[in-house]
Specification:
The structure holds three protein chains of three kinds. By secondary structure, chain A is α/β, with parallel strands linked by helices. Chain A has a single domain, classed as TIM Barrel, CATH 3.20.20. Chain A has six helices and six strands. In chain A, β4, α2 and β5 form a beta-alpha-beta unit. The termini of chain A are far apart. A five-stranded antiparallel beta sheet of chain B has the order 3-2-1-4-5. The longest helix of chain B has 12 residues. By secondary structure, chain C is an alpha+beta fold. Chain C folds into four domains: about 100 residues, Sulfite Reductase Hemoprotein, domain 2 (Alpha-Beta Complex); about 160 residues, Sulfite Reductase Hemoprotein, domain 1, CATH 3.30.413.10; about 90 residues, Sulfite Reductase Hemoprotein, domain 2 (Alpha-Beta Complex), CATH 3.90.480; about 140 residues, 2-Layer Sandwich (Sulfite Reductase Hemoprotein, domain 1). Chain C is about 40% helix and about 15% strand. In chain C, the strands form four sheets. In chain C, strands 16, 17, 18, 19, 20 and 21 form a six-stranded mixed beta sheet that branches. Chain C has a five-stranded antiparallel beta sheet with strand order 1-2-5-4-13. In chain C, β11 and β12 form a beta hairpin. In chain C, α1 runs antiparallel to α4, α7 packs across α8 and α10 packs across α11. The relative contact order of chain C is 0.09. Classes of the chains: A alpha/beta, B alpha+beta, C alpha+beta. Chains in contact: A-C, B-C. Chains A and C meet through α2, α3 and α6 of A and α1, α2, α5, α6 and α8 of C.
């Protein structure tokens, strides 16, 4: 299991960009981090919530399971970092943030196709939404 | 025996206007079915489609549509769906039929 | 009538801005069509056979005269001077240009309208009873709940990329004019023994390729639990709905494959989490919504002239007989305006007609209109003393067709005249049938009959729940029409049974004629409707009429 996680973690650092707070950062290897990678099939009851970081894979942008998984992790009290990885369109970035995702990992090619200005602009849409208003008003 | 190849044309919708367009021999698009370049073989059809699909900044959803040729080698749509597309809806005099 | 506040306005204005930038990015190449498509769909923009099509939401089918006016303005300015009202209480423009769409959305935003979530795999426009807030038989007005659901589901971060589209309908009346059991979630407002309001919930209904009647999920859910319970349903669906095959991706298939019991258990488990995490909307917000749906200040006036007119004017009394329903206030009436003028396209209204209706709503219906899933327009609050005036105005605008509920009041999807998914045309079929029975002056004689036509298996024309349903398909390169019998709407919803082999376009009208003739011969008395006769006698005599022996012999 550990082997698989490390492999997954080193894979993603090869050719990718991290979007954090609307800024691009190089994906760095941080071997001290205790990380778990899950995909849309993950069952929430089987996820180890003691990990420093949980990476949720978005295989296709049209597959929205990752949004509910992120939210469920938070609802179950997970306090670590949630990273969404893979096929997440810039237009989906605010949705991911609202579900409790901290950062997004995209390929270099994707980062060139949808440059950082678009991510920064998208982030401004994470606030001021109906649901927050309904639940807080 | 292999079935006879049915002649084809390339059609799509215009990105900006949304209306039906046909790929022509000059690599540009026409509003008129009769301007469409005809593919007589599978190879020609695939080659044309590939060329047409390169113009993603002008078109949406290019595909091959079957046609039949009259004695003068003029192509008409084979399927009734393509007939409607080349003409317009039947409930109003709208679409291409009104533009001619 | 719900009216936008600053927040709603800001939200919609932002979405228009965002869509404008998405269109720009599509044009400059930073969005491919594959990426742009779901984004345009989320803003109601489809690409159909001849053009783009913009579907505008009319939340729970309610709108005011200003909004109606704006629809007329948009139809005139950007389209071909008409609009199409749909079977899901939306309105569609059939000829917009991509470059105009941000401007159209902007014009809609000026009157608090939008096209958000009228397409895509998200929670769609919540539909409701078209007599909501007016009908005498309602337990409570469903629109405050529908509005709460609209706010909840709009831009919900988890549910914009569901396995498939998701439809919620709500009725405040046991008469269920919203056909709630044909929706992914159907809600029925009811009272418990103590008189507290809550919801009966149905899950997994739907028409389309595999039709299902919604199954009872919960007999009574207290009103305050609505949002966390809906959230639990949505989470279970988002995580477990099938994503491997789009034809099996709706929640009806999840319910069908796992059984309602198992799905209910998962929903109830998740509901516990939601209940703990969900912060309920404040009383202030709830009462602000309720405030918007208060009954209008009904006027008092003498209705003697109305009674006299009824006796003296046969045209007027025929109109009143078919197009009026009973109102909460005994001096008021609910007026249904038919968009099924004989020989015209079901659900279409010209800019001028839309303007007329807006004007009538302003002057005579406390500024309110409703759109019905039967593609008609409702003036919900007309004082009886004004009915004669309304009727005259409708006559002038060619809108006084008195065929509500009759055989010519046909629901029909746009079919292959417009729709990219269609396999056959619906509109010419509807026109032909309506024209035939109207010319023979048989509509009244036939009585209540719901005839519904879909131009493909997706069933936008609700053919499964038509007493007579017609499904247009393609057979050997030609249009072919399958007939279903015995479908039924409302809480007792039934899926119609396929009668037999399809009919060509030429054979269809004669087949319908034989079917109607058989019914007229078979019924016990003139008050026995087609559906009642069918239920009493079973399908056999009707199938025999559709497929007479001689013809069968000839075919053989």
């Amino acid at each position: 299991m550990l082997h698989k996680q490390q492999k997954a973690f080193s894979n993603i650092t090869a050719k990718s960009t991290i979007v954090r707070n609307g800024f691009f950062e190089k994906a760095e290897i941080d071997s001290s981090k205790n990380t778990l990678e899950i995909d849309g099939n993950a069952k929430i009851s089987q996820i180890d919530l003691s990990k420093d970081m949980i990476i949720i894979k978005f295989e296709k942008f049209a597959d929205g399971r990752g949004f509910s998984l992120a939210k469920l992790l938070r609802q179950n009290g997970y306090k670590g970092i949630i990273r969404a990885k893979g096929n997440l369109l810039v237009d989906q970035y605010p949705l991911a943030i609202r579900c409790g995702v901290d950062e997004v990992e995209i390929s270099f090619a994707h980062a060139q196709h949808q440059p950082k200005e678009q991510w920064r602009e998208a982030l401004t849409r994470a606030n001021n939404n109906y649901l927050d208003r309904l639940m807080l008003a | 025996m292999a079935r006879k190849f049915i002649e084809k044309i390339i059609t799509a919708n215009d990105l900006l206007q949304g209306d039906v367009i046909y790929f022509t021999k000059d690599n540009v698009w026409s509003r008129n079915h009769k301007d469409a370049i005809i593919a007589y073989t599978t190879e020609q059809a695939n080659e044309l489609l590939e060329r047409a699909e390169q113009q993603q900044d002008k078109i949406v959803g290019a595909y091959l549509a079957d046609v039949f040729l009259d004695e003068a080698q003029i192509a008409s749509p084979l399927h009734f769906r393509e007939k409607f597309r080349s003409n317009g809806p039947s409930n109003y005099f709208h679409g291409k039929q009104a533009q001619v | 009538m719900y009216q936008y506040n600053q927040f709603d306005r800001h939200f919609v204005a932002n979405r228009v801005k965002q869509f404008r930038s998405q269109v720009m990015r599509r044009l400059d190449g930073s969005l491919s069509e594959e990426e742009f498509r779901p984004l345009r769909l989320m803003n109601g923009l489809y690409l159909q056979l001849h053009a783009y099509m913009l579907r505008v939401a009319i939340p729970y089918g309610s709108l005011n005269s200003k909004q109606m006016h704006q629809l007329a303005y948009i139809a005139n300015k950007y389209d071909k001077n008409y609009a199409h009202f749909t079977t899901r209480q939306n309105v569609q423009f059939n000829w917009p240009k991509l470059k105009d769409v941000p401007d159209i959305l902007n014009d809609l935003a000026q009157v608090d309208m939008h096209a958000i979530q009228t397409s895509g795999n998200c929670i769609r426009n919540v539909t409701s009873d078209h007599f909501a807030g007016a009908s005498i038989d309602e337990v409570a007005d469903p629109r405050p709940s529908a509005e709460l659901l609209r706010q909840y589901s709009t831009d919900h971060p988890q549910f914009q990329f569901l396995p498939r589209k998701f439809k919620i309908a709500i009725s405040g009346s046991p008469k269920d004019r919203a056909v709630i059991r044909s929706n992914d979630i159907g809600l029925l407002l009811k009272k418990d023994k103590q008189g507290n309001l809550g919801y009966e919930i149905y899950l997994g209904g739907g028409l389309g390729r595999s039709p299902f009647v919604g199954k009872l999920l919960k007999g009574f859910l207290p009103k305050a639990d609505l949002l966390p319970y809906i959230e639990a349903i949505m989470v279970v669906y988002n995580l477990n709905g099938r994503r491997d095959n789009k034809y099996k991706a709706r929640i009806k298939i999840l319910v069908h494959e796992n059984g309602i019991k198992k799905i209910k258990q998962e929903i109830e488990e998740n509901f516990l989490i939601q209940k703990k995490n969900f912060k309920q909307p404040s009383d202030k917000l709830i009462s602000a919504i309720n405030e918007r749906f208060k009954l209008p200040n009904f006027k008092q006036a003498n209705i003697d002239d109305y009674k006299t007119e009824l006796k003296q004017n046969a045209q007027f009394s025929n109109f009143i007989k078919n197009n009026i329903n009973e109102h909460k206030n005994k001096d008021y009436a609910i007026v249904s305006v038919s968009l099924k003028n004989i020989g015209e396209t079901p659900g279409d209204a010209t800019s001028d007609q839309i303007k007329t209706l807006a004007g009538l709503a302003k002057q005579y219906s406390h500024d309110e209109l409703r759109i019905s899933h039967e593609q008609n327009i409702i003036l919900p609050h007309v004082h009886k003393s004004d009915l004669s005036g309304v009727f005259k105005e409708l006559q002038k605008a060619n809108l006084a067709t008195n065929n509500i509920g009759l055989i010519s009041d046909i629901i029909a999807c746009p079919g292959m005249d417009y729709c990219a998914l269609a396999t056959a045309r619906s509109i010419p079929v509807a026109k032909q049938i309506a024209k035939h029975f109207n010319e023979l002056n048989l509509e009244e004689e036939i009585g209540q009959l719901k005839l519904k036509i879909s131009g493909c298996i997706n069933a936008c024309g609700h053919h499964h729940v038509g007493h007579i349903g017609i499904l247009g398909l393609e057979k050997q390169g030609k249009e072919s029409y399958q007939i279903t019998l015995g479908g039924e709407e409302n809480l007792s919803m039934n899926i119609g049974k396929r009668a037999g082999p399809g009919f060509s376009s030429d054979e269809l009208l004669p087949a319908i004629k034989r079917l109607i003739k058989a019914y007229l011969n078979l019924r016990n008395n003139p008050d026995e409707s087609f559906l009642s006769s069918y239920k009493r006698l079973g399908k056999k005599p009707f199938i025999n009429a559709l497929y007479p022996k001689e013809e069968q012999a000839n075919v053989a």
